[in-house]
Amino acid sequence: MARPYVAKPKGHLTKEQLAEREDMNEKMKTFTPLSRRAPSWFNDDERKEYRRILPLLNELPASALDQAAVENHCQLVAEIKHCSKMINEQGLVIDNGQGGTKKNPYEDLRAKAIQQLRATDSQLGLTPVSRLKLIAEDQKKDDEPKDPFSELLQ
Known about the structure:
Elements: H1 15-28, H2 44-57, H3 67-90, E1 93-95, E2 101-103, H4 105-124, H5 128-143, H6 150-153
Antiparallel strand pairs: 1-2
Helix pairs in contact: 2-3, 3-4
């Protein structure tokens, strides 16, 4: 997963739970990084998106385990781009072949791809809300008050 461990127990976290979560987040950094090369079967638009997003993902705890989700993201972005291009060329309403009109089917394809992209991006930490959750987790660790007597008790 691209995000740090965020399973939330009920109530406040104990020091042991905070330490365990920190250990899990540190272990996330030891996974194999994402491939620097886009898959060979990608088309030009997918490759372009892969190159655009890779430096951004390297700032997050993404790893090679997330490769399928990253590839899915790139494919969906390219699909949305293609559907938008076809809608711009053909219009929102097209001839149905029987003298009438119908809604352009690319509109439905684009809407489904956008919905899937939202879900994929949320998993990868690419939406504003998912990034805020990552930042909030880091700030909670920093805001925890230091107990001057805790070292004496250990």
